[in-house]
Amino acid sequence: MLSIFDPRHTVAPPGYSRWLIPTAALAVHVCIGQVYATSVYKNSLIAHFDASQTAIGAIFSIAIVMLGSSAAVGGRWVERNGPRRAMFVSACFWATGFLVGALGIATQQLWLLYLGYGVIGGIGLGIGYISPVSTLIKWFPDRPGLATGLAIMGFGGGALVAGPLARQLLSLYDADYNPANPAAVASGSALVGLFVTFGIGYFVIMMFGPFNVRVPPPDWRPAGFDPDRVAARPLVTRASVSASNAVRTRSFWLLWIVLFCNVTAGIGILEQASPMIQDFFRDNGSTAVSVSAAAGFVGVLSLFNMAGRFVWSTTSDLIGRKPIYLVYLGVGMVLYALLAVAGHAATALFVLIAALIISFYGGGFATMPAYLRDLFGTFQVGAIHGRLLTAWSAAGIAGPLIVNRILDAQGKPGTLTASAYRPALFTMVGVLAIGFVANLLVRAVPDRFHEPDRGSASPVARASVTEPVALGPRSSPPVPEHVGDQTGRLWLSWLLVAVLLGYGIVETVSTAAKLFTG
Length: 518
Known about the structure:
About 70% of the residues lie in helices and about 0% in strands. Strand 1 (about 280-285) and strand 2 form a beta hairpin. The relative contact order is 0.16. It has 21 helices and 2 strands. It has a two-stranded antiparallel sheet. The termini are far apart. By secondary structure, the protein is mainly α.
């Protein structure tokens, strides 16, 4: 039965719809995006284990570090074994992480939660995050920004789904738990039920990924696609660069700096979102923003984080990857400065500026795979992306550390005002300036790093030569001359994604409304 995950069964038959591939990516990314919703049950874990915030917060940190590490180390494995096997392995690790974590909660062994959700689940995060990237870019050489934006939008939307769902499940498993009360904590048995439900449920949903994903046949291209027109754009190469050669180029490390700076600045807002808006409008010890309104602000940021991943990444197909990062970083500097100087003037102004900043944060994640494809080609682009994601791990540590250290020096939580945030915000302006300069310095990769030309006429490297997943005709299994009608499958797949994200959006909008209703 497991032979269906062999690379030889991954090549798409003629006529296979490429619009099934984004649904496969979204099914995986919506599930692993749950990692951004761990704060929902953080207080419950603190009470259950009688542990400090730092001890419980380390679970999330371990998962993010493992995401970057496993993506970097496992990138070549994903390229060799293909997206179908990678998605299956990701689902197994992600689900196992929840189940081992549930065992840790049931036995009150915190180290099992570190091992389960943090280490095992973190490996599933990393493999799952990069599993569809290379395949999407090969199926959408004409619109790589749109394709990767769709998939990585799912990662941002995962928290929109998992947050309200976790609160509802905890209230179902614990009748005394009130999700409307920010100080409420759920019982240990409710937490065990939550983790088991997530582990089983996410595994089932993630199986839609292997079910739908395929790699295109060698030298496949969409109807009407003109490779010459794409290759004529600045910084877009028709050559191929291996992952081992990519890390030897100046452009790779410049992009590492670009991603690190963009993520560091964005996390500066995300990590402090709820207390930040309350502190900005604090006067004489009292704040004009209620706890429920602050939760609404977090909801607004979540929506812009998700939407920015699709909108800005798609825009990059029109104006180019380098110009769009000039927007992320250059306009971002202006927005951070405005937030520091005038953010306290009006709640609406504060929310608008912060939402735009977070949309750039999300857009930076979604556009990077397409930027890598432009510079390094499609050969091993997934592995290159995996190695670049170490910048995310580093930024996940640096961003909160910078902001929290500065705020600690300004005073105690609950007493801070807008002026206390200005040093941190202006620091982020400097961080973005470094990324802005790094992006300006990005150049085409020198020819000495290119793989030997094996005669492909397409800017998409010949899969039969450069990607072991897409085996040649002799080793590929027999395929039908043409697939049957795929309308029902397309509707079912997109309906699943729409229901998941639609649920999250509706729940988040209702929460965001509290920002304006109090």
